[in-house]
Specification:
Blueprint lengths: L3 E5 L6 H9 L3 E5 L2 H10 L4 E5 L5 H11 L4 E5 L6 H9 L12 H54 L11 E6 L3 H10 L5 E6 L2 H10 L4 E5 L7 H11 L4 E6 L4 H9 L4 E4 L5 H53 L6
Parallel strand pairs: 1-2, 1-3, 3-4, 5-6, 5-7, 7-8, 8-9
Length: 333
């Protein structure tokens, strides 16, 4: 069976039309009142509604059906003669009709005002659809740009410069009660991009760290008073991202395991048999620290761009949903 057609009007007038529609392959449902039409449309959808203009309240019913069933085509039928030029105008797609002879100018103005409202609504819908298209294009372009930026970031991080730009020097704190160890480490870390400070006990070191955190802490395990492991715990509590290297003159496997379990980035034994190896370990940690900072900075930029994109999308989606809600028929109970 073909499309469903609804007739709203006097039933005795529809028989000839029913036969013609059936021969054309369409299914005709007939009602003789506006209430009957509303009940029929609640039970199922119709492609076309044929409504008799001789039916009381036909114009109001047409307006109601257009609002609640915008996809259904409304065809007005009448047994009165309709001037050919009027029929042609309707078929050509006019949106309204006014009689300059029978209507007051104010009535015509009201029709014009309503036509402008419809025009503005359709124009805004077109703008929304274009905005959705542009936003989708922008999203795709952002994905492409992001892939390119990822490759650039990878190359930049692999050959990262020794400075941190606007972040300032890389701050390093050495905590050891042996002046010679502090002096040696300061010499190994003698670079313009580093700011190195050395103290002899854990209490002083943590006091400095609380005032302005360091990015790398090198601490002896066996300190007077506060131990190196206590320093490690305090540093990780204050600034979890700071790397801590633990030194000890009594190297044991258990001591190394304890330090690493508490979050130490490395464990070095004193005295330093291979100074170059010590320097290499510290420089690797510094490079990884910088890489993490750059990655976080990049992710922050991406997240901010995503927030802006999502904010624009949500605003656009809300407005689009509202327009669709106005066009969609209400859900049937």
């Amino acid at each position: 069976m073909g499309a469903r057609i609804l007739w709203v009007g006097e039933l005795e007038q529809v028989d000839p039309l029913r036969q013609a529609l059936q021969l054309a392959g369409y299914m005709l449902v007939t009602v003789d009142s506006i209430d009957g039409a509303q009940a029929a449309m609640r039970q199922g959808s119709f492609a076309v509604v044929l409504i008799s203009l001789e039916l009381a309240g036909a114009a109001s019913a047409i307006a109601f059906f257009k609002d609640h069933h915008p996809r259904t085509q409304m065809v007005a039928v009448t047994h009165r003669a309709v001037p050919p030029h009027v029929t042609l105008a309707i078929q050509a797609g006019i949106d309204d009709m006014a009689s300059m002879r029978l209507e007051e100018p104010e009535s015509v103005v009201a029709r014009v005002r309503e036509a402008i409202r419809r025009h503005d609504g359709e124009r805004r819908e077109l703008e929304l659809l274009r905005s959705v298209r542009d936003l989708n294009d922008e999203f795709l372009n952002s994905i492409i740009a992001l892939e390119k930026r990822n490759m650039e970031l990878e190359r930049a991080l692999m050959g990262a410069a020794s400075t941190d730009g606007e972040e300032g020097p890389f701050r390093i704190l050495i905590i050891d009660d042996e002046p010679t160890v502090c002096a040696l480490l300061k010499r190994l870390l003698d670079e313009e991009s580093y700011q190195v400070m050395a103290v002899a006990d854990g209490e002083t070191g943590i006091l400095l760290f609380r005032q302005e955190p360091f990015r790398l802490v090198v601490t002896d395990k066996n300190l007077p008073g506060m131990s190196g492991l206590d320093v490690l715990r305090a540093v990780k509590k204050i600034q979890p991202d700071t790397d801590v290297v633990v030194l000890t003159g009594y190297g044991t496997k258990e001591a190394a395991v304890d330090a690493l379990n508490l979050g130490a980035a490395a464990f070095l034994e004193k005295p330093f048999d291979d100074v170059d190896a010590v320097q290499g370990t510290l420089e690797v940690l510094i490079a990884k620290q910088r890489m993490r900072r750059r990655e976080r900075g990049y992710l922050t930029i991406i997240k901010e761009r995503n927030r802006e994109f999502l904010a624009r999308y949500r605003t656009l989606r809300t407005e689009l949903d509202e327009r669709l809600r106005q066009r969609e028929p209400p859900s049937q109970a």
